[in-house]
């Protein structure tokens, strides 16, 4: 393998196109394939090679990056070319569940394919910048072999041999992102009833949320220890705050769909006798239990 070994990118949506572009600019020979061939035009103009078929695409490189809609699409594309993929490395960049990642890893191993699963913590413009992070798990030897190439896409983080861990971590991080954005939009809807623009609210919200992220390690200590004893802002205090937020939202004509579930979790903790415990104990109402 040379420093600029060939790479194939299968799937040229917004993310796939940026991945291929970054690899091309780094000097890698890049082969691209997409169901709609015209999506490859700009990359071919930059020096990429357009593959006419998936089989041609995967046999053009020792490293195959797959970035398509879902795992069903991945299997539809890869299973017919399993023979051609044997001895190569497939890095799955498609978002899916940990179960899907593990099942695909088992299939790949049975075909003699080195398999690495990935979660992309980035938007298309972030690819290839310091803000981009890619999470990986699966075949560690394959990951390390191609890490210099994968590092071009963003900061690489390795999570171990369990192919499902990168996906699990990815979805867990995304859950935090989505609920944060949803909370911001709920707040914007509230202040919007008083004529405040979302842009104005974003300034205050950004400062507040950045300050609050510093308390994540404090919350983690409660969760990891299992001891939720606190003498500040317990369940009773936070339930009261959520009650007011929900009431104020309704009074302002804003649906409480985003904040009401948190109110419900706190109500459950209170009903179970945990009123003097930390807010963080709501995790006990949502976390999985041993079968």
Written description of the protein model:
With 291 residues, this protein is of the alpha/beta class. The chain is built from 13 helices and eight strands. It has an eight-stranded mixed sheet with strand order 3-2-1-4-5-6-7-8, with helices on both faces. Helix 1 links the parallel strand 1 (7-10) and strand 2. Helix 6 (98-110) runs antiparallel to helix 9 and helix 9 packs across helix 10. The longest helix has 29 residues, at 164-192. The two termini are 46 Å apart.
Which secondary structure elements does this structure contain, and how are they paired or packed?
Elements lengths: L6 E4 L3 H12 L4 E4 L7 H6 L2 E2 L3 H5 L4 E4 L4 H8 L3 H4 L3 E4 L5 H13 L3 E8 L11 E6 L1 H6 L1 H4 L4 E4 L5 H29 L5 H15 L3 H10 L9 H17 L8 H12 L20
Parallel strand pairs: 1-2, 1-4, 2-3, 4-5, 5-6, 7-8
Antiparallel strand pairs: 6-7
The total of beta strands comes to: 8
Using the CA coordinates, give the radius of gyration. 23 Å
| Net shape | elongated
Ends distance: 46 Å
- Strand coverage percent: 5-15%
Mean pLDDT over the full residue set: 97
Structural class designation:
alpha/beta
Number of helices, counting only DSSP H or I runs of 4 residues or more: 13
> How are the strands of the largest sheet arranged?
3-2-1-4-5-6-7-8
Could you give the order of the helices and strands?
A: EHEHEHEHHEHEEHHEHHHHH
The residue fraction in helices comes out at 40-55%
Main sheet specs: 8 strands, mixed
Low-confidence stretches: none
